[in-house]
């Protein structure tokens, strides 16, 4: 059951980006423009986790128009998504996953369905597409708690190949899992980091899905997405991801679901794991360069990277309760066109040299207005904020009518009291000894990008 493909979607977007690049300008004060935007919880971005997936990076395009096949592109800044031009059922009218029938051209293959369900829960979809048999299952289809998570699995194999009813050897079948709060729609991308087929499943009767394959840092520092509205055949849609794969895809079905892909398939690019006990940071340069290359399809050799900060810092969210120091390593990666990406990783250092654990971090695009001079703001001890600003002499902050000036210490960071009014409109400026502005951080822009670098959440 194959819906219409739109394989040239990415090519059209890339062409439009090239056309717009010559006219893009940086706004004089992006902070004032977005102070009314909806902000996410400040502490959400403090720890991204040890996975530090390449999905912490984004690519931007600003274009609106008509796509092949009559599909529509909508230009929505991050946090300001609108409903699709093609209406879809509201959440209340959608059947829950537990009520979905098995769909796909293999739905009648009782032996295959039974073999999968005996081990992996209820089968939702079974189909031969692009020369491969694809089966989607959910371990707990009756899960209704929106906070609790369910395990979804995708199985990819050669058509006609029996599915093993037991044992750990799956033969030629490939198995991919995704754990998510039970959504009202499901998506599977054949590859996490490369162009691949994208399957979206929604309740039977759903007529359309909005898909955005890439997130793009705009000239003002915000993240933007372009949306393509695709028809669904009885709640099923096949299309293609961008070169960045499933990790950069966001899709939405009316008001029922808006978020990332449920299951990501194979990894095709090499990415070196983070070194747990490393203190020099040199291995982090390699890792972050690989992650930028993976997320954007760059040749690794075309990316430049350097360490811009590597010190122990009193940040509270990375404490492990033992009193060990937390080392923050910051890496600046620059792509051929001059776009800067920041990667930072936090490690709790053990008492013995070379020991410790990876405790968090993030990677995200930087605003072209300040590039690598933008300060990094993290939650500190005793209800404070730690501002990492190497090369600066002082910082000035303002939030909720309060303001203050703090000195940057010899380790390149300053500590400010967490504003009583909260962090929603926090703004931090850094200055050198002569009073020249070096960089700026605004919660409304930088905080949003740090917390959701790929704009995968509404």
From TrEMBL:
Source superkingdom: Bacteria
Keywords: Membrane, Transmembrane, Transmembrane helix
Ranges that cross the membrane: 46-67
Region (Disordered): 72-92
Biased composition (Polar residues): 72-90
Protein name as catalogued: DUF4179 domain-containing protein
């Amino acid at each position: 059951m194959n819906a219409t493909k739109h394989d040239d979607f990415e090519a059209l977007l890339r062409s439009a980006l090239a056309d717009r690049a010559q006219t893009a300008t940086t706004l004089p004060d992006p902070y004032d423009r977005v102070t009314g935007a909806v902000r996410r919880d400040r502490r959400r971005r403090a720890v991204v986790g040890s996975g530090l997936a390449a999905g912490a990076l984004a690519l931007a395009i600003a274009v609106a128009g008509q796509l092949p096949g009559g599909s529509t592109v909508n230009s929505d800044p991050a946090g300001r998504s609108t409903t699709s031009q093609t209406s879809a059922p509201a959440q209340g009218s959608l059947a829950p996953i537990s009520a979905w029938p098995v769909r796909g051209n293999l739905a009648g293959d009782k032996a295959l369905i039974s073999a999968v369900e005996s081990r992996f829960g209820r089968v939702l979809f079974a189909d031969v597409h692009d020369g491969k048999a694809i089966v989607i299952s959910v371990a707990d289809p009756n899960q209704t708690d929106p906070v609790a998570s369910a395990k979804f699995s995708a199985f990819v194999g050669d058509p006609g190949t029996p599915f093993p009813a037991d044992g750990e050897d799956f033969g030629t079948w490939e198995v991919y899992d995704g754990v998510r709060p039970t959504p009202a729609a499901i998506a599977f991308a054949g590859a996490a980091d490369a162009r691949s087929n994208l399957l979206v499943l929604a309740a039977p009767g759903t007529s359309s899905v909005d898909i955005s394959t890439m997130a793009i840092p705009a000239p003002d520092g915000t993240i933007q997405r372009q949306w393509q509205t695709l028809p669904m055949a009885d709640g099923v849609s096949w299309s293609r991801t961008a070169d960045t794969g499933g990790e950069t895809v966001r899709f939405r079905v009316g008001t029922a679901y808006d978020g990332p892909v449920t299951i990501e398939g194979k990894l095709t690019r090499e990415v070196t794991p983070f070194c747990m006990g490393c203190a020099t940071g040199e291995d982090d340069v390699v890792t972050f360069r690989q992650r930028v290359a993976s997320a954007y399809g760059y040749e690794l050799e075309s990316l430049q990277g350097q360490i811009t900060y590597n010190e122990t810092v009193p940040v509270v969210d990375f404490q492990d309760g033992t009193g060990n120091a937390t080392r923050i390593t910051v890496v600046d990666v620059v792509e051929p066109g001059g776009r800067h990406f920041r990667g930072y990783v936090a490690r709790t250092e053990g008492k013995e040299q070379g020991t410790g654990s990876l405790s968090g971090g993030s990677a995200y695009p930087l605003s072209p207005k300040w590039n690598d001079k933008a300060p990094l703001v993290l939650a500190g001890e005793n209800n404070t904020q730690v501002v990492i600003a190497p090369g600066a002499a002082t910082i000035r902050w303002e939030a909720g009518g309060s303001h203050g000036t703090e000195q940057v210490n010899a380790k390149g960071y300053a500590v400010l009291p967490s504003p009583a009014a909260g962090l929603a409109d926090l703004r931090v400026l850094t200055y050198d000894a002569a009073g020249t502005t070096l960089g700026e951080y605004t919660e409304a822009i930088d905080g949003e990008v740090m917390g959701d670098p790929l704009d995968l959440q509404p």
